[in-house]
C-alpha cells in the first residue's frame, strides 16, 4: 500500500529560489516558484496546474484532496481555491492584480493593496512510525509500530511526533541524495531491504518472547506471595480465651452458668448433742 504521508503532499511556494533540501518544481507567476522535497516527484496535471509532490510519476491528487497536508511537516498550509504551503515566517496571500488575478503565493510581508493575506488552515495526515533499535550486550532492543490520525496546528509544529517525522524525513532525504549521485548505484538500497526486514522480524520475536516471559514471571510471583500469605495464616496460634474475673473480698463469687442451684438433701441424719449423766462419780 502506497503511503502519501510526508515527504509527499502539497508543494511549497517561495519567491525566486527554493530553500535547501528542496528541489524546484515549477515557475508559477511573477518571480514565485514551487518546491518539493528531493525524495518526491513534482506532478502537475493537465487540468490543474497546482504542483503537488507525489511518490512517483502517477498523479496523487485524489488522495491528497481527501487527506490534505504539506509535503513537509514544518510547513504551514493555506487555501485559496487550491491548497498550497508556506515556510517559516512567510504568509499565504492572493492577488487581485489584473495580470495575475486570483493567483496566490507566499511572502514574509505581502505588500500592495491588491494582495490579501490568507488565514492558515489545519492539515491532517495519517502517520505511520516504525522505530527499530537493536540491543546486543550494551545496546537496546525496542520495536514499535504506531498508526494514528491527528490534526496538528497550522503554525510551526512543535510536537515530538512531528519532530520524529521530520527527523525520519531528513534521514530519507540524505539517503536518497547519496543514492542518486552518479557514482553510486541502486544495489546497496536493494540489499539493505532484506536486512531491515530480518532485523524487524527478529526484533518482533524478541519482543514477543520478552512479553510472554514477563507475564509468566509476574504470575509466578503472585503465586509465591499467595502461598506465603496463606502459610502465615495457618501458622498463627489459636487465640487464648480470657481467664474468669477474680472475686473481690466480701463479695460472692460469680455463679457459673454451667451449674444449677439445688437444695441440700432432706434425709441427712442430724446428730444431737447430749450432756454427761449426773450420777457419774468424780475421780478422787
From TrEMBL:
| Renumbered residue ranges of the record's region Disordered | 168-202, 236-284
Q: How does it sit in the membrane?
A: Single-pass membrane protein
Task: Please list the residue ranges that the record marks as compositionally biased, kind Low complexity.
Answer: 168-197
**Coiled coil regions in record:** none
Q: Which UniProt keywords apply?
A: Membrane, Transmembrane, Transmembrane helix
Domain of life from the UniProt record: Eukaryota
State what protein this is by name: Extracellular membrane protein CFEM domain-containing protein
Amino acid at each position: 500500500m502506497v503511503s502519501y504521508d510526508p515527504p509527499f503532499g502539497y508543494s511549497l511556494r517561495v519567491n525566486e529560489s527554493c530553500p535547501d533540501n528542496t528541489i524546484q518544481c515549477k515557475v508559477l507567476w511573477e518571480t514565485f516558484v514551487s518546491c518539493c522535497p528531493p525524495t518526491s516527484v513534482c506532478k502537475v496535471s493537465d487540468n490543474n496546474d497546482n504542483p503537488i509532490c507525489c511518490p512517483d510519476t502517477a498523479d496523487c491528487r485524489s488522495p491528497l484532496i481527501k487527506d490534505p497536508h504539506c509535503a513537509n511537516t514544518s510547513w504551514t498550509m493555506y487555501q485559496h481555491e487550491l491548497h498550497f504551503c508556506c515556510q517559516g515566517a512567510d504568509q499565504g496571500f492572493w492577488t487581485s492584480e489584473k495580470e495575475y488575478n486570483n493567483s496566490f503565493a507566499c511572502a514574509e510581508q505581502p505588500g500592495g493593496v491588491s494582495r490579501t493575506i490568507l488565514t492558515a488552515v489545519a492539515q491532517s495526515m495519517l502517520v505511520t512510525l516504525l522505530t527499530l533499535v537493536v540491543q546486543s550486550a550494551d545496546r537496546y532492543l525496542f520495536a514499535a509500530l504506531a498508526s494514528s490520525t491527528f490534526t496538528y496546528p497550522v503554525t510551526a509544529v512543535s510536537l515530538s511526533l512531528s519532530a520524529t517525522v521530520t527527523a525520519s524525513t531528513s534521514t530519507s532525504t540524505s539517503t536518497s541524495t547519496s543514492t542518486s549521485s552518479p557514482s553510486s548505484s541502486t544495489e546497496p538500497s536493494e540489499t539493505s531491504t532484506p536486512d531491515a526486514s530480518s532485523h524487524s522480524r527478529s526484533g518482533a520475536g524478541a519482543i514477543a518472547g520478552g512479553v510472554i516471559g514477563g507475564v509468566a514471571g509476574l504470575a509466578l510471583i503472585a503465586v509465591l506471595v499467595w502461598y506465603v500469605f496463606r502459610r502465615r495464616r495457618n501458622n498463627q496460634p489459636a487465640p487464648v480465651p480470657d481467664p474468669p474475673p477474680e472475686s473481690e473480698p466480701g463479695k460472692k463469687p460469680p455463679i457459673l452458668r454451667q451449674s444449677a442451684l439445688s437444695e441440700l438433701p432432706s434425709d441427712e441424719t442430724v446428730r444431737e448433742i447430749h450432756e454427761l449423766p449426773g450420777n457419774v462419780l468424780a475421780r478422787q
